[in-house]
Amino acid sequence: MNLSHRIEIIDSKKLIGFSIATSYQNDQTPIVWRKLMIRRNEIANRISNRLFSLQIYPENFTPNQTFTKYALAEVSNFQNIPEEFETFELERGKYLVFSYKGKAENGPEIFRYLFQTFIPENQFEIDNRPHFEIFGDDYNPNDDSAEEEIWIPIK
Question: Is the separation of the CB atoms in 87 and 78 below 8 Å?
Answer without folding.
Answer: yes
